[in-house]
Amino acid sequence: MCEKSCSHHHERKKLYLRIFWSVIAIFVIIALVILLVWAILQPKKPTFILQDATVNALSLSGSNFLTSNIQVTISAKNPNERIGIYYEKLDIYASYRNQQITLATELPRSYQGHKDITIWSPFLYANSVPVSPYLAAALGQDLNAGAVLVNIKVDGTLKWKVGSWISGTYRLNVNCPAYMTFGNRFHGIVDGVGIKYQFVQGCSVEVAPS
């Protein structure tokens, strides 16, 4: 009886081991296939273009309080032929000399298919926002000189999609320089109460694992 019982127990243990190693092998094969497909496809980061910016307000009041109202049009293109992009969370704002000068506006979540282009036209606001004395002095000088370099930035996260597989989260950072002129150096277009600047220029894009 002991021999039969021990033999049966041994066979059951061998069966469990076979099932265990079979499951491990399946997961390893799936992981290798995903890595192989990923290596072959080599996803390219999206390209962003700042198309235009309409400045409705950009002024200093008091010693260092900034008010701004800027509408920008920015586009993103997925350059990949077999990889989709999920934009999970994107915040856009204006920056001057590496300091944020408007509130962040959240762009709607979206999926971008192969070679697709997405266009956003958000408003960027700041109402009497305090800035550092150094920044206020520099901006005042630039406004008086008739030329201001503002950077439109997008920070957020994205995921890649290959077939039914979706990658982990990646950080996305976009920087679009917008050179605006006023007074005698003015080159914009008067658009109602604002001034519209046409750019159609590429932005720097960084994508990295989160």
From TrEMBL:
InterPro entries: LEA_2, NDR1-like. Residues 73-176 form the Late embryogenesis abundant protein LEA-2 subgroup domain. It holds the Pfam family LEA_2. PANTHER family: LATE EMBRYOGENESIS ABUNDANT (LEA) HYDROXYPROLINE-RICH GLYCOPROTEIN FAMILY, OS05G0367900 PROTEIN. This is Late embryogenesis abundant protein LEA-2 subgroup domain-containing protein. Keywords: Membrane, Transmembrane, Transmembrane helix. It is a single-pass membrane protein. The lineage of its organism: Eukaryota, Viridiplantae, Streptophyta, Embryophyta, Tracheophyta.
